Amino acid sequence: MTDSSTSAPVAPRRPYSFTRHGITVSDDYAWLKDARWQEVLHDPSLLDADIRAYLEAENAYAESVLGHTAPLQKKLVAEMRGRIKEDDSSVPSPDGPYAYFRKYREGGQHELFCRTPRNGGAETIGLDGDALARGHEYFKFGGSRHSHDHKLAAWSADTKGSEYFTIRVRDWDGGNDLVDLVEETDGGVVWSRDCKSFFYVKLDDNHRPMQVWRHKLGTNQSDDLLVYEENDTGWFTHVHESTSGRFCVIAGGDHETSEQRLIDLDHPDAPPRLVAARESGVQYSIADRGDELLILTNADGAIDFKIVTAPLAAPERANWRDLIPHRAGIYVLDHDLYAGHLVRLERANALPSIVIRDLASGEEHAIAFDEGAYSLDAMGSYEFDTTNLRFAYSSMTTPSEVWDYDMVTRAKTLRKRQEIPSGHNPADYVTTRIMAKAQDGAEVPVSLLHRRDFKADGSAPLLLYGYGSYGHAMPASFSANRLSLVDRGFVYAIAHIRGGTDKGWGWYLDGKREKKTNSFDDFSACARALIAANYTSEKRIVGHGGSAGGMLMGAVANRAGELFAGIVAEVPFVDVLNTMLDDSLPLTPPEWPEWGNPIESEKDFRTILSYSPYDNVAAKPYPAILAMAGLTDPRVTYWEPAKWIARLRATMTGGGPVVLRTNMGAGHGGASGRFNRLDEVAIAYAFALWAVGLADRSA
What we know:
Elements: E1 17-20, E2 23-26, H1 37-42, H2 49-66, H3 70-82, E3 93-95, E4 98-103, E5 112-117, E6 124-128, H4 129-133, E7 140-146, E8 152-158, E9 165-171, E10 177-185, E11 190-191, E12 197-203, E13 209-216, E14 225-229, E15 236-241, E16 247-253, E17 258-264, E18 273-274, E19 284-289, E20 292-297, E21 306-311, E22 321-324, E23 331-337, E24 341-348, E25 351-358, E26 364-367, E27 375-378, E28 388-394, E29 401-406, E30 412-417, E31 429-437, E32 443-451, E33 462-465, H5 483-486, E34 491-495, H6 505-509, H7 517-532, E35 541-546, H8 548-560, E36 564-570, H9 576-581, H10 588-595, H11 602-611, E37 621-622, E38 624-630, H12 639-651, E39 654-655, E40 658-663, H13 676-691, H14 695-698
Parallel strand pairs: 33-34, 33-35, 35-36, 36-38, 37-39, 38-40
Antiparallel strand pairs: 1-2, 3-4, 4-5, 5-6, 7-8, 8-9, 9-10, 11-12, 12-13, 13-14, 15-16, 16-17, 17-18, 19-20, 20-21, 21-22, 23-24, 24-25, 25-26, 27-28, 28-29, 29-30, 31-32, 32-34
Helix pairs in contact: 3-13, 7-8
C-alpha cells in the first residue's frame, strides 16, 4: 500500500555512547535532539537544518504510506464533525449578578467566553477565540477568570504550542484589553478581593512552574512582586482559589508529596501561610469553610485517602482529626466544599460515585447510576453558599449529560444533554465490562463498546486503548469520535491497567517504578483475554496510547508485538532513560518519583533500562506503527519518537511499516482548534483501519 517512489528515510547513525553506574549505553540517534531545544520551543524556525530535513523526510514518507487513505480521512473528519453541535454552549454558571458560560459559533474553531444577567437577558461576548486566533498557526486558551467585581477578565493564551501562556486583562464592558501583559506563565490566575491585582505562576527557562508572582494592574511585569519560590526542581507549583473564595492556594508537589500555602485575598500583601509542612510521601489538598479546613490526604497510611478536619488558625498535622476515615479499596479522588455540604468523588473497582454529606447532621447519601461502566464528574461552582451541585455523567453509549442536583431535596434537573446532530441511538450500542487475569493473578477491568449486532466470533477488529501512569484513571465516558471505528465493525476497549487509580491508589502503586512492567503486562493480558472471549483475534488488534500511554505502546510493541496488527503512539514517551538522565528537561525532576532517578540510583538506572522502549528495540518483526509528534511539545519532546522510529527501522527484521508524523506547528496537545484536531484523529483512525485491512472498504 506504500508509494514506492518515496522510500523510508534512513537516519544516519552518529556513534555516541555514555557510561553511568558502570553501564555503557549506545545512542546513535542522540543527534536528533537539538542542542538548542529550549530556544526551539520558543521559536521553531531555529531548529537545526539536518534535524528539520530528517523530520520533513519522515513526514513525506508518512504521507506516502498513508496518502492513499486521504479520502477515508476526509470521510472520517466529515463524520466526526457531523457529530459536533457546532454552535454548542456550556450551561451558564451563576456568580452574583451574572451567569458565565462558554460557547462556539457555527463553523468556529475556538471558544467564546460569554455572560448574561443571572436571571436571563442579552448575552455579552467577553472573549472571541476565533478573532483572537486569527493570524496564528496555533492558538489555545489557557483560561479566563472574571474579577470579583465582574468588571474585568484575566485571560491567557498560548500561540506556539509550547505551553507558555501570556496573560492579558480585558474590560468586560469596553471589550478592550488593558495595557497589562504578563508572559511565560502557566495560564492560571487568582484575583485579589479588591480586583487591583492578581497572582500567577511564572515558568522558568526549563518550562518549570517554580515561582508565584503578584501583578498589580497598570504596571509592567518587571515591577511584579515575587510572592513564593519553590527551591526543589522536582516540584511543580500552581495557584487556585479556595472553595470559599477567601484564599489563593499555592499548591506544590510532585507525584508523591504535596504542600499548600494560603494567601488571604482580602490582604494580598500578607505573606503566604503554610498549612502543613511537607513530609515525604504525604499528599494533601485543602477546602475551607469558616474557621475550619477539610483536608483530603493519604496521611497515616491511608492508601486510598481519607478526609480530616483542622482548625484554620492551627492547621498543622498534629491537629488533623479524621472526618471520613480511610476505607481500603474505596479511593477518594476529590472533595468539594459548600456552605452546608461536603461532596466527595469516590471510585471503587473502576466505577465512580458522588457522595454528599450534610455537615450539620453528618448524614450521607450517594448519587447512584445503573450502567455497567460510566464516567462521573462533579463540576464545581463559582458560588459557595448554595445547595446546588452540578455534575456530568456519561457512558460509552450515553452522550454527556449535565445535571443540577439539590443537595437538600435530592431533586435532579437535567440541564444539558450532548447533542449529536448527525444522530445517535444509544440502543444501537452495547457497553460492558470483562475482567482480564494478569500473569500475577490481578484482575484487570476492561470496558468495551460495540454495536448491538456485533457477533463474538473472533473476526472483529479491536482498538485497545491504555495509559497506566501517574495514577490517571481512564473513564468509561462517551466519545463521539470513536463511533467512526465502532460503526465500521471495530470493538473499542479501554484497559484499566495498573499505574492508574481505576481500582484505587494501590492499583497505581503496583504500576510504577520497579513495578512499572505490570502496566505493560496488564495491557497484553487484556489483549489476550479479549482474544479468548472471541471479541477479536491475534493480529486484529490495534493498540492506542499517548504520552505515557505512548511509552506503554512502545513497551508492548517490544514485549508482545505479535498480538497486534498496528500500534498508534501519540506524542510517545519512549526514550525514558535518556529523558530521566537529563535534569534540564522540563518534566524530568518532577518525574523521578514516578519512574525513579537513574542519575543517583544504579537500581533505578537498571530498572528503566530494562523496559525503556527505545533502549529495548530488538531484531524481530514489529506490527505497523504510527508515531505522532509535536515539534514544540515541552512534555514529550519531538526527538523521542524520532529516535525511536529511526532505531526501529534500522533494527527490526520484518513487519511494519513504521512511520513518524511530526506536526511542525504544534505541541503536546496536537493541532489547536476543535475541527483541526479532528484531522489528527482521522489520521490515527485511518491508520487503524488500514492496519486491519479495512481502509479501502471504508473510504
